[in-house]
């Protein structure tokens, strides 16, 4: 029995505080308490000394139970999945009851009931009060165990929550054992049980055993705290990144949050910080220049020049001079030296809009600038070096132009390093109302008018239209409607005729579908008869009908085929 004695001596001595009705224990257990230890049916002798106070049966039971508790606490991510089975094992094997696990809230510092044995509390996470209040609060504050032999006379006044939770235990004058849950030097909470009144030695033994259990609970609590905190951090980070995608990646001056435009914003964000040549492609009026400005403003050259050139607006005779400049006297009218757009955009960005319109000769010179960053002015021989980022845009099909020999393949590869496709407005209909509201506010302010909203019929018209002119057409439509509005509302009749519906313009078809189909059929039969000079057999073959069906349809529509035979 010497080994058992060693185990008892190694148990923490200062991890508990006795109730006022008991003297402090010397070396863990007093010899006077030996008579209180119950006999063990499997032992031949009663305990006779301090070294044999805890029988081998009790030690083995505690070891076995501690192993089962450790295994139970390792199960499941949720604390309740592990703690409730632990409560069951302790109450079934050790005679304990009304188990409660309290945790200190790391944000508020309050003590809360995390888990409790069935029947003790209806809900979990029940606030018990500040750390230091009541019995459990004192254990959490001091980090020392408390043994109360009888709850009818507690050494510390119970808090209102404790009194409610322990109402039945107080009525039966049960004992309470509460131990702190530690993780290193930090106190995480408390573990407590009640039990029927027992000898001081039995209560002390239970307290020491629960101290060991609390150590295992502390590991489980800390692990789950860290897991939940990390999971919550990941959720917050995910929400932040989602919000960043919606907001921070929205370039300045851009309107629209559709999935198609979010992809454009992503490309803008990826390429803005580099010097890579960008080719923006999309239909006329889709906002290619806005995308070019967004790339410039989001990049490191935003404080440098941004020079625009509309290649389609410049005659072929002067586009070379506009891009590369000319020397004095280079041609008739060249009265002085003039710098081209490439020189003006030095260290900055040059936006070549409608790049697909330039001639083959200009394509060759542009290719050299993109390759070498050097050129000569028109009429000059001095090579000029420039540091320019080129952003080009076109609505032309360059691949088709290459096949037709109208565009250089090598220039295509130089420009198409990072293509950005701007979707037409019909492919991002969810952006129509947001764009319309933006233009409504803009032109209301510019025209000094207070136009507050767009009526529902007008919204329906805007959403139903196919917008061949894209955003530019929508802007013009809203500007026109703002000017026409007289009551602060844009109505359907303020929109152009191309957007009008049959109901709004009072042009709804008056015939039924069957009547319309019959009219179309009659028109096709008449045209076929007219083409074949009234010969019904030929007209029937043209329409894909048999002569019998042709005759029936002619008769049904009351068509006189003979009158077409006399036609010249």
Characterize the structure shown.
The protein has 21 helices and 18 strands. The strands form 5 sheets. It has a 7-stranded mixed sheet. By secondary structure, it is α/β, with parallel strands linked by helices. The longest helix has 47 residues, at 200-246.
What order do the helices and strands come in, and which of them pair?
Layout: H1 2-10, E1 16-17, H2 56-73, H3 79-94, E2 97-104, E3 110-116, E4 126-130, H4 134-142, E5 145-148, H5 160-165, H6 167-171, E6 175-183, E7 186-195, H7 200-246, H8 259-271, E8 278-281, H9 288-298, E9 306-310, H10 316-324, E10 325-326, E11 338-339, H11 341-344, E12 349-353, H12 360-372, E13 374-376, E14 383-385, E15 389-394, H13 398-403, H14 409-415, E16 418-421, H15 432-446, E17 453-454, H16 456-464, H17 470-484, E18 489-490, H18 502-505, H19 513-531, H20 536-543, H21 547-556
Parallel strand pairs: 1-5, 8-15, 8-16, 9-12, 12-15, 17-18
Antiparallel strand pairs: 2-3, 2-7, 3-4, 5-6, 6-7, 10-11, 13-14
Helix pairs in contact: 2-3, 2-7, 8-9, 12-14, 15-17, 19-20, 20-21
